[in-house]
């Protein structure tokens, strides 16, 4: 920070004609008074570095809301089973074609700070649930759009935020009342959740088959802890390989390792596998301190080499004596050790990733050891079959037929790279949706039915709210209807007529499950049609979207520093023409 003022010449004379030590304090007190007087006169005081830009008040709010709405509008057309795809091209020319909300916002090159906050909403939704990212982003944009009209009416942002918070809490209560229970045993319902998650994506042609595999995968890794079901999706390894078709995708009751056996003389297939997992190199260790060995004769050299061979042979013998016929090593395996393992008929893979080793331990029941000497028969895992398979020109190791595996692998196939990538995203949504349904144990109808029901109840709740917060609650209720409105538009239906009919249906006693059946372009009971979604998708989307909207609304001042190394250039994400009125600051 620095101050730009003009000194009175008499003060400069005073400084040069008096003793600095005696009068320095008096000088600076007078200097301070002059600065204050200059500020009081309205003269310019510089407190920001050159090139910094600032937007304040309504302009800052308008710019932030505009940026957030732009992101929401970009993904809105992808919502639902008839959602359109986006083609994203990066600086290198790489292409991504998808209608997955999380992928779109992740690949978008966004610079505006408010837009980045909306993208964080999508990432949170994807991390917490695995599905519903488009819903969360669209709701965020609509909450801000409705808030903008309230700001134009003179409603203070803190009042809008308070009303939104009240509405979000009530929305959670209402969603809980209309939800229905689901458990791992409800296989059909879980498959319907997976199908709903994949509908409209590239995997739609094989969605029934992929849904069955997704439910089976989640049920394999689900664990019951104190009466509560937990699912760690990290235990489901998804591998993708182009070639074949989507129907060639399969679930492996075991693990797929993207490696090959270390020696061509080893068997390609081992049935009745006894598996050892080692986190130690089968190599001769170098000494920790510098050492020098003096060899003066060929006999001594031969003895030295023989000793190394014996040490490696001993390591391999310890593996073989344990009864293992398959070895996965997290570190390296010496070439000579590979030869000995091959002679012993042991199938070995080296430099396996730590994450894969952990999954192998969960799938096969083997213990991961850091010492070969400690390896015993009780430390071994088991599998019906371990084999090396060539897929799309790459060798991969399949560990199949594990008994009660707590880690499984999902291999996805497709005709082209873009198809495989989109099927993977669809399966990711399906796995996330099924896991979220099982963990929370509650589901709701899809097709915008819960949003319309919550909107109806929020309007009635708004009548009981005093003050201007009532306007914010009503705005929140109106914003919730953006989901059925968007679905109706994508189905070719008249959005206004559809909303009017939906409101009328939801006024009836059993109307909570009435929504937009996009494929048939009509209003139906979607629960009976098998269009269902996890409750967690809705609650998390409303929570994240409302909190992000509140945060953006409360910003009334944006101060952006100049670009590093630049000379006052335009900061990233700032609107054309700068930041507007500087309010007397530079």
Please, could you describe this protein's structure?
The chain has 586 residues and is of the alpha+beta class. It has 4 domains: 9-47; 55-181 and 445-559, GroEL-like equatorial domain (GROEL, domain 1, Orthogonal Bundle), CATH 1.10.560.10; 187-253 and 413-440, TCP-1-like chaperonin intermediate domain (GROEL, domain 2), CATH 3.30.260.10; 255-404, GroEL (3-Layer(bba) Sandwich), CATH 3.50.7.10. It contains 18 helices and 21 strands. It has helices at residues 9-17, 20-40, 57-76, 101-107, 113-128, 133-152, 157-178, 187-198, 207-221, 298-321, 335-343, 354-364, 417-440, 449-462, 469-480, 482-490, 495-507, 535-553; strands at residues 53-56, 86-89, 95-98, 180-181, 223-225, 228-230, 236-242, 250-252, 255-257, 269-278, 326-329, 347-349, 368-369, 381-391, 394-400, 408-414, 442-445, 514-517, 522-525, 532-534, 557-560. The strands form 7 sheets. Strands 9, 10, 11, 12, 13, 14 and 15 form a 7-stranded mixed beta sheet that branches. Strands 4-17-20 form a 3-stranded antiparallel beta sheet. A 3-stranded mixed beta sheet has the order 7-16-8. The termini are close together. Mean pLDDT is 82; it is low at 1-23 and 564-586.
Would you summarize the structure shown here?
The protein is α+β, with helices and mostly antiparallel strands.
Features of the shown structure:
GROEL, domain 2; alpha+beta; three-stranded antiparallel beta sheet; elongated; GROEL, domain 1; 586 residues
CATH superfamily of the largest domain: GroEL-like equatorial domain
SS field, number of helical segments? 18
Number of strands: 21
**CATH fold group of the largest domain:** GROEL, domain 1
Q: What proportion strand?
A: 15-25%
Largest sheet: 7 strands, mixed
- Helical/strand content category: alpha+beta
Mean pLDDT score, rounded?
A: 82
N→C terminal distance: 11 Å
Task: Please tell me what the overall shape is.
Answer: elongated
What's the CATH first level of the largest domain?
A: Mainly Alpha
Q: Low-confidence parts, pLDDT < 50 over ≥5 residues?
A: 1-23, 564-586
Which CATH architecture of the largest domain is right? Answer: Orthogonal Bundle
Number of domains: 4
| Estimated radius of gyration | 33 Å
